[in-house]
Amino acid sequence: MKLSGREPIASFVEAIRNGEQTIEDTDERQGRDKSLGASLDYGFRHAFEDDELPIIALLHLFQGTVDVDALAWMGKGDHALPELKGKIKEHLTSLLDRARDTGLLTHLGGTWYTIHPALPWFLRQLFARHYDGQQGHSTATAALRAWVKAIGALGDYCVEQFDQGNRDVTQHLALGEANLLHARRTARCQGWWRGVISAMQGLRILYEYQGRQAEWSRLVAEITPDYCTPDDAPISGREDQYGPVMAYRSHLAWERDRDLPRAIGLQQKLIELLRRQAGPALALPVGTPLDARQQHRVNAIGTEVYTLGLILFEQGSPDCVAAHEECIRHAKRTQNTGTEAMSHREIGHAYLGIPAIRNLDAAEAAYQRSLALRDPSDALGRSRCLSSIGMVHRYRFEESRQRGEPKATVLKHAQTAELYYRQALALCPPTALPDLAPMHNNLGNLYQLISQTELAREQYEIAAQYSEQTGNHYEAGRTRGNMAIMYAEAAEREAAASRQRDLLHRARAYAQAALRDFQHYQGRAADKEAGAQQLLADIAQALTKLPA
Q1: What are the tens digits of pLDDT across the range 523-537?
Q2: Among 178, 147, 130, residue whose Cα is nearest residue 75
Q3: How far apart are CA 122 and CA 115, in angstroms?
Q4: What sections of 211-254 are H helices per DSSP?
Q5: Domain boundary pick from 317, 334, 351
Q6: In this predicted model, what pLDDT tens digit does every residue of 143-195 receive, in sequence order?
Q7: Are residues 56 and 183 in the same domain?
Q8: How far is CA 122 from its chain centroid?
């Protein structure tokens, strides 16, 4: 008779924990009580039906956390396991809930469970018993492949949701991080190259969102030889996975290492390949329905042209607008509103930040288009748009003041900028550290412009701390440089020599800190180093002019 009901199962578990079951355990090497393994085996055979034990055994593949959706996916597709055939999500949830009732799983909420720390070794034995490829059982390799595919499918799904503005998926990725890492390792060992990238995609979203660049860089460096030749060409047969790997490398060269020439070179090689792959789809008349593969190709080229636009913007090239307009065309064709919204925002940046095409009205219009396209659940995306609109009003404030417009008009622009900045900060998720840093920096800049030195310092300090936490010494240096300039300018406005000296000493300390941040890049931020050194020289000269 099977164990059923909470009380009998709970009594069995308690008996195990108290050492009351005395059937011998065959695995003494782990130093466990001889009774424990067989006791668990006995209890499992009485708590679950024979066709349920192979499913329980699959929990061995999970790394600490179990997702019901992953189990359900293991029963679908090309590598579906017969042991899961016909097992719908509701059935699997009920099964894991019974395992929870034994105390062997803990329900975390939603589709997630954790495994009791005393259980993995037993699940390994159970898995070996049921997945031996004999008597109709699947092989261990087949089960492992189905699991890797399922974890990768979860990663791909989370990427799709994230790109559509759903930032809640980062919580699921955080819960499943150990599973994604294990799926990546397993797929590499087995040569399942598509599975490696599926796991990497989920990890990319998680690590970039959390600002864990050093860990992400290490993972990318490990897999680069799997897909790229020494001269950065694709390894034959792995072209589809070559694209994502090149994109990872280009982003890291650009954003982490500040090596723009290398980033451009990698990006151009990637776009060259993607244009060839997307050529047939791009040649179709506009309005022609695209199949799933064609949509994927068009989205891929749009994504990388978007990235090229970002790099061109950093170079100060107006050509970035054309790149983003091309990206918008591709996004409209595939109804990819997330990417379309991002490109509109970048066009706003171009009209705001490139002197040759500067147009504040065009910039705000682009930002408003981006905001209108954002999903209501996309708090981070909407926050970014609000912050950008605040920047437009900050520039209007500066221009209005330079033109000598009435004080009320000038003040209104400053207040509107502050309002948008504050709304952006309130909406920005607290875990989005790479975004919080520039938002606080922007607010600090505004307060500096209106001579609110201490309010500016508070915002700059927060921004620098967030940048340091994400390993972005470049932005931390820029923020500290802003603080140094702020205190140097404040010293010029002071009449008392003692107060001037105090402010200049603060300015020098922040300029020195900024220089250290830029020196972290070992010459790749030489222009910023030179700027910090010139600032230190100016501060030193100002100090010598003060009375002793």
Answers
A1: 888 999 999 999 999
A2: 147
A3: 12
A4: 213-227, 239-251
A5: 334
A6: 999 999 999 998 888 888 887 778 788 888 999 999 999 999 999 999 999 99
A7: yes
A8: 35
Query: In a 10 Å sphere around its CB, with 0-12 CB exposed, 13-18 middle and 19+ buried, how is residue 114 labelled?
Result: middle
Domain identity same for 171 and 66: yes
Shared domain for 92 and 159, answered yes or no, is: yes
143 and 230 in a single domain? The answer is no
Distinct helix (H) and strand (E) counts, the chain? 24, 3
| Domain range for 324 | 211-334
How far apart (Å, rounded) are the C-alpha atoms in residues 296 and 238?
16
Range from 107-121, 145-159, 331-345 carrying the lowest mean pLDDT: 107-121
The answer to whether residues 233 and 168 belong to one domain is no
Domain finish residue from 292, 317, 334: 334
Confidence band of 7 (pLDDT split at 50, 70, 90): low
Do 265 and 155 belong together in one domain? Answer: no
65-67 β-sheet, strand order: 65-67, 112-115, 105-109
- Which residue shows structure tokens 């010494």? 473
Per the rule left: phi > 0, alpha: psi between -120 and 50, beta: everything else, 103 is left
C-alpha atoms less than 13 angstroms from C-alpha of 224 in its C-beta half-sphere? 19
24 CB-near residues (< 8 Å, 6+ apart) = 34, 35, 38
CB 263 within 8 A of CB 253: yes
Q: Which helix (H) or strand (E) is 388 found in, with range?
A: helix 379-402
In a domain? residue 321: yes
- Burial per residue of 441-466, b for 16 or more beta-carbon CB atoms within 10 angstroms, e otherwise: bbbbbbbbbbeebeebbebbbbbbeb
Per-residue pLDDT reduced to its tens digit, 29-61: 444 444 555 555 665 666 778 788 889 889 999
Beta bridge partner(s), residue 319: none
Dihedral pair phi/psi, residue 365, rounded to 5°: -60, -40
Three-state DSSP class for 132?
strand
Cα separation, 227 vs 406, in Å, equals 62
Q: What is the DSSP letter of 114?
A: E
Task: List, in order, residues 6 or more apart from 492 with CB less than 8 Å away.
Answer: none
User: Buried b vs exposed e over 37-58: b needs ≥16 C-beta within 10 Å?
Assistant: bbbbbbbbeebbeeebbbbbbb
Judgement on whether residues 216 and 165 belong to the same structural domain of the protein: no
Is the residue at 276 inside a domain?
yes
Q: What is the pLDDT of residue 103?
A: 74
Number of domain units in the chain: 2
Would you state the structure tokens that stand for residue 462, as one six-digit string? Answer: 């927060």
Name the 3-class secondary structure at 106: strand
- Say which DSSP state 67 is in: E
Question: How many C-alpha atoms does 476 have within 13 Å on its Cβ side?
Answer: 21
Q: How far is CA 508 from the centre of its chain?
A: 36
Backbone angles phi, psi at 214, to 5 degrees: -65, -45
pTM: 0.60
Which uninterrupted H or E stretch holds 107? strand 105-109
| Same-domain check for residues 226 and 282 | yes
Is the CB of residue 395 less than 8 Å from the CB of residue 414? no
